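Hi D.,

Good news: the full-assembly prediction came through. Inputs first.
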Amino acid sequence: MTAHTPPPPAPPIGLLVELTHRCPLGCLYCSNPIALERPGAELDGETWKRVFSEAASLGALHVHLSGGEPTARRDIVDLTRHASQSGLYTNLITSGIGVNEKLTGELVDAGLDHAQLSLQGADKETNDRLGHYKGAWERKRAFAGYVIKAGLPLTINAVIHRSNIRQVSAFIDLAVELGARRLEIAHTQYYGWALANRAALMPSRQDVDESIAIVEAARVRLKGELVIDMVVPDYYARYPKPCAGGWGRVAINVSPAGKALPCHAAESIPGLEFWNVRDHSLSDIWRSNPAFNAFRGTDWMPELCRSCDRREIDWGGCRCQALALTGDARNTDPACHKSPHHERIAATAMAEAESGDGVLRWRSYKEKAEV
Amino acid sequence: MDEKEIHAQSRPRLPRGVRLKRDEARNRWTLLAPERIFEVDDTAATVLELCDGERDLAGIVAELAARFTAPPAVIEKDVVAMLADLKAKRVLET
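Then the structure:
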């Protein structure tokens, strides 16, 4: 055999940019890392624009303008316009707080293609309590109205956990009422903030099964009216979810300070050096950053995954979860029923679902727990 | 929604937030929608380019029948099935 250079990886489909970690909400399950990036460390607008252009040239099709709350950036309209002009499909992932009708109109005029609005609960009390923000409910509903009025497609995103899992049916009704075309029923994934709050968030197996049945029935009933996507909870699953569609395979994330990551939690894995878009082009990072190659494809896999016929469906599951729950990022994701750790994490989930409340850590720059 | 809802006078169009885009990096056509990417073959892309909200289905079928020299009835059946599928996915309006 002769030495050969591996072929370059297929280009990413989507770019998710955490434009800022500033956010008015304090969700217990925020996908941002616990060590939030300070506003002073954020990339400037010109650098973000270069990243958008590079992503489009590389072959990305979607850009997800996320945060934190992305509209906390004063240049959000300018950034949206540049992303759109680069040829990217632009998706705003927002809490809806602070986005008035004028700003919505400016974003639409700048070429915004789609808005995704988070809802923490399906009624005012639940929503404002779980978002840790009084008055969020009215503002979110108002934002949904501005989006619909502007003719833009609206997705409602509801992260599901023990305190709102019995509202799945109400979330579906609410999405229809607000005029959404799409609803994400996203069971909490336990990383970062959600892992810290897991005992307070984990639903029971029975509630999970009921919520899935409700979604499946609604999909039939609302076919052609509302598309419902569901992220099922890992701990009760039989197979793991593919990490971001497979490590370094379809998605690239960029943190507020410019670190390019295969997924939003990847920095939790020790020993990987993630390059910064300040120093490298996106295509250079995608192709050559050793951290992107660390778990790319199937060569890195443990025997359990490499010999499995789902190896190119699940891609070994999630590396961050393997690390968090087994202590080694190279292990099979224990969400997989074949993992020797699977029984233990399912038992943990059931015990935590039973145990009632836990200490709540509302997302904030202050790392202070509140009971 | 069933296929009956698409008829000769329907004027199919891509709604706001859905874009037909040539994906140069992968040498294919795609339909970009919220959190979704549909790969479309060249024939489907030709149909979708005609779905401008101005032409009705009868006009689209006539145009395709002329272009591909195929029987309109066959074309209509295929086009209606394709459009109904996209409509159910909420990426097409009529």
